[in-house]
Specification:
seven-stranded mixed sheet, Aspartate Aminotransferase, domain 1, Aspartate Aminotransferase, domain 2, 13 strands, 385 residues, 14 helices
């Protein structure tokens, strides 16, 4: 193939292949157990798979409406009303998206102008920064401090300027497993009052909050809901990450701008999945079962590692467990996880990958959304270190 004849001025000059792709490939290369990338190694509910088959046979194989199938948007509206007491208009305030990453990108594309500032919290999920930079925005970082990764609201307040257009939040938080409290949400609500700052609330792990704690969705807080894009994930909730389907909620005025961008980014989302999910969401008890499933896996994981040389950090939600490994090695976290994969057969993620400058605090992240057999085998290897 001929080479491109001119130098390319990259829009993302500092971005390479994501750490998730790198570590999953390394795990495959060495036959390691993959506790790096955040996806289950067990199947979706059999009833949901059957409903997908039924949807294809019923003829739902052409374009769904740009905003999402009405039956699915109705099911989403019923869910958020039941869980959070939040009323969203099916026609104008709910949009089905091709995964949560697309929803977040679209919200940023719709609202951020060149020169606008967007506050994000480090360690930060890796798609946020590039989404902002591609719109010509400036990423402003607010640090979450070890060991519990709680926000410092005085510090956040100091970062707000007249150019602050957006704040992106994520609770339960990936990669740390921290869950924000009612006090956190009240502090954020006070900070943005009487401003034109919009919020993107990444709540894809909303149903994975442990130890009888409550998920403090922005939907519970009118002063936040009125200015927020709220993103949730069917992929995380129903063990179907490969379906790449999620949704976004926002007030009518914000959603109108969101949809302007959405229609030209993906236009619409896989139709049979939407009809299958709409029917499956009518079945009671799933969210409680999901929470119990992952709390059980978290407890097994933590119990096993409590007798190891890993230092467990708090895990209040998500399906991720962060640990320190200083009693095992003084290597940098990237070198340690690569050696862990090659020599000990377990892949993890270095948390330095979630910092813009690669800050290395000697912390790595494991995903425990795995079958009992996978976890048993991985833990047996880890406790020997």
């Amino acid at each position: 193939m001929p080479s491109y004849p001119r130098p390319i001025q990259s829009r993302l000059p500092d971005v390479g292949t994501t750490i998730f792709t790198v570590m999953s490939a390394l795990a495959q290369q060495h036959g390691a157990i993959n506790l790096s990338q955040g996806f289950p190694d067990f199947d979706a509910p059999a009833d949901l798979l059957a409903l997908l088959n039924e949807a294809t046979k019923a003829g739902h194989n052409q374009y769904a409406p740009m905003t999402g199938a009405p039956v699915l948007r109705e099911a989403i509206a019923a869910k958020v009303q039941a869980l959070y007491g939040a009323a969203y208009d099916v026609a104008n305030e709910i949009t089905v998206t091709a995964g949560a990453t697309q929803a977040i990108f679209t919200a940023v594309a719709a609202m951020v102008h060149p020169g606008d500032e967007v506050i994000v919290f480090t360690p930060v999920y890796d798609s946020y920064g590039p989404s902002i930079e591609l719109q010509g925005g400036k990423v402003v970082y607010a640090d979450l401090s070890l060991p519990d990764y709680r926000p410092d609201w005085a510090r956040v307040k100091a970062l707000i300027t007249p150019r602050t257009r957006m704040i992106i939040i994520n609770s339960p938080h990936n990669p740390t497993g921290t869950v924000w409290t009612a006090d956190d949400m009240a502090a954020l609500e006070a900070l943005v009052k009487d401003t034109d700052i919009v919020i993107v609330s990444d709540e894809v792990y909303e149903h994975m909050v442990f130890d009888q704690a409550r998920h403090e969705s922005v939907l519970r807080y009118p002063g936040l809901a009125e200015r927020s894009f709220v993103v949730s994930s069917f992929g995380k909730t129903y063990h179907i990450t490969g379906w790449k389907i999620a949704y976004c909620l926002a007030p009518r005025e914000l959603m109108a701008e969101f949809r302007k961008a959405h229609q030209f980014i993906v236009f619409t989302v896989h139709a049979p999945s939407q009809y299958a999910l709409a029917e499956f969401m009518k079945r009671p008890g799933w969210y409680e079962q999901l929470k119990a499933l992952y709390q059980g896996k978290r407890d097994i994981f933590r119990q096993a590692l409590s007798s190891s040389r890993f230092e467990l950090l708090p895990c209040q939600g998500t399906y991720f467990q962060c640990v320190k490994y200083s009693a095992i090695s003084d290597e940098g976290d990237r070198a340690f996880v690569e050696r862990l994969t090659r020599e000990h057969g377990v892949a993890a993620i270095p948390v330095s990958a979630f910092y813009p400058n690669g800050d290395d605090h000697g912390v790595i992240r494991f995903c425990f959304a795995k079958s009992a057999a996978t976890l048993e085998s991985a833990l047996a290897r880890l406790v020997r270190l």
